Amino acid sequence: MDYAKSAEKLLLNLYKISSLPDQKQLMNLSKGELCVLFALTRHGDLKPGELMKITETSSAHMAKILRNLQAKNEVIRSSDLSDRRSYVMSITEKGRKHVAEVYGHAVEKTISVMKRMEEEDIEDLLRITDRLLSMKEEVVSE
Questions:
Q1: Three-state SS at 56
Q2: Residue 83 is part of which domain span?
Q3: Does any domain span residue 34?
Q4: Which residue in 1, 12, 72, 95 could disulfide with 91, CB within 3.0 to 4.6 Å?
Q5: What are phi and psi of 45, to 5 degrees?
Q6: φ, ψ for residue 88 (rounded to 5)?
């Protein structure tokens, strides 16, 4: 097997999938604002440093994301009650609605694609992507 050729094909396919209009919107947002909104939805109020760890984002990029989300009234900044020198970010109702809307749209589009696939192919796809993710974690820890 030509592993280099297979790797290039896989990366190209993943790139093409992420470049589809609906996926592109989700992927672009998920790298920044939407990823932060998801984290706040899932974990509750978080300090910027905690958001940086969860989203694997640099401090400069996180500052920009938080400024943008504050300007859109999707997050609010408040003092940390346990440490007045720091602050926490909270998601607003507007932010929650944005997450639900974008995520719901992505799920609907993915369902419409999956309905065109054989059930066995869907199971294989999920099994293989799960395996790829677990192997990536193994490789990163080496």
A1: coil
A2: 19-117
A3: yes
A4: 95
A5: -60, 135
A6: -125, 155
